[in-house]
Amino acid sequence: MRRGGALALFLLFVLAAPAMLPAFYVTLFNYIGLATLVALGLVLLTGVAGIVSFGQQAFVGMAAYTTAALTTLAGASPWITLFASLAVTATAALMLGAIMLRLSGHYLAISTIAWGIAIYYLFGNLPMLGQYSGIDNVPAISLLGWTLDTGRKSYYLIWIVTVAALLAARNLLDSRCGRAIRALRFRSVMAESFGVDTASLKVVVFLYAALLAGLSGWLYAHFLRFVSPHAFGVNAGIDYLFMAVIGGASQVWGALLGASVLTVLKEWLKDILPAAFQQTGNYEIVVFGILMMFLLHRTRDGLVPAFARLFPPGPARARPADAEPLARRTKPPPGQPLLELSGVEKRFGGLIAVRDLSFAMQSGEILGLIGPNGAGKSTVFNLVTSVLPADAGQIRFEGERIERATQRDIARLGVCRTFQHVNLVSSMSVLENVALGAHLRGRRGTVAAMLHIERDEEERLLAEAARQLDRVGLGAHLFDPAGSLPLGQQRIVEIARALCADPVLLLMDEPAAGLRYAEKRALAELLVKLRGEGISILLVEHDMDFVMGLVDRVVVMDFGEKLAEGLPADIHADPAVLEAYLGGIE
Q1: Cα separation of 401 and 219, whole Å?
Q2: How far is Cα 586 from Cα 582, in angstroms, rounded to an integer?
Q3: Which of 53-67, 97-111, 216-230, 408-422 has the lowest mean pLDDT?
Q4: Phi, psi (5° rounding) for residue 80?
Q5: What does pTM read for this prediction?
Q6: How far apart are the first and last CA of the chain?
Q7: Which of 115, 260, 343, 511 is most buried as measured by Cβ atoms within 10 A of its Cβ?
Q8: φ, ψ dihedrals at 535, nearest 5°
Q9: Alpha-carbon torsion 220, 223, 229, 230, what sign?
């Protein structure tokens, strides 16, 4: 059975479940659907974007209490309170996100626990919300004259919303914006260098996860018809995070599987364990903890990847169809001033990495930047692309000062780069990694992606990525995971990604490292061809035979300063360069 067939069978079972199962299990399925919405937000937020949150239950509670209070105290319609609940959730998410998303690591996780606890006690101490007794007699939802006042009647609304959210999340990740989201966790610097607004994108993902939790809270309040703080404590937040991890923290359908396993397993253990031990107690928590440790030890990526290995893969993905080419930049004519550094400096505390560096290059030129290890070459790349701010001096690109510009601004000007250490999203395919380079050449946003109405643009971006991979000789590896390629080929993928951005200036940091002799020759031929197409290249490389036979001019650095500048033949014979870089004349 193929994976698509298994999914179809599951959806058929969901459709038929109310007619087949007792009322208890229909209610259990409703809880699974509600939990799936929250866990899905955590898949996107934590598993994909790398933003750990233990506080999603607070957003569930905000929406649940908003609709419960407005319907019982003000007599508002549940459909009106849906918008009010989501508005309250979105406002809280934006306020909290503006503060918390500036944090990282364990500071971020601890802050989510802190505000989760604060919201719990806020619910429990407000008299208008019933304090710890909560709010009861919440009205049921009415739809087309049909009152959803039982588990069976609420079932289809809950699952229609849940399946729609799952499909929207799958569409989102399979898009231009989805590629950017997948790069947030470990490759944010790389993503910024290709024009991704990582700060705004984190807020978008955080808001989306909060809205999914809020939608779950609204449904929960009108399904259960009662809300109290106990359902929105820290333990609930931990359970939601467990659901995402159990199913597969980076898998959309893992949210569904994780919610199903945890919800059903906890319910069964509550019945089985007291009977086995002949006394009451929360034994299910102990047993569940042990099972979690075993599960994480055996399938650390979650159950969805483990189950996927049991089913044969579907047919090979088709190569992207040739689509209308993307618009291209107008390159400056050869010989025009392009990049100029004047008195540039960069300090790290007492260490001066770059000192009073000045050089210039023209359009249509390949300029080599060489020097011994630690000379400051990669720091220069980081200064030019605004990964690091310059402490002094000026950097101009086509006459415009850029030393205070953002990485995204630099990318928009047509300055693209490769990295000294391979900077790919290893779990993404080669094609997707390269298409990330064309991020600024697309315009459709997250809503269009979730609705799947950006496919025309997506086809053009993927077709461009495929063309660039053919250009560098990797057209046979479009759908291979990028992390499965040898190091040398991964460096070529980085070059294809930079070319996908249609650069004016291409900064290449040790592109020949790890390549065999024939591969280096092919790379040199490619760079010469790119120069002929109007792309200027600033090259850092340690292989002197490769550099000297390729570049038009050379700038030599040593201890952060410019040691020499000139034609390759002059540099090769310069005694100071030989002493500093090549080990002396002898």
Answers
A1: 53
A2: 10
A3: 97-111
A4: -75, -40
A5: 0.91
A6: 69
A7: 511
A8: -90, 125
A9: negative
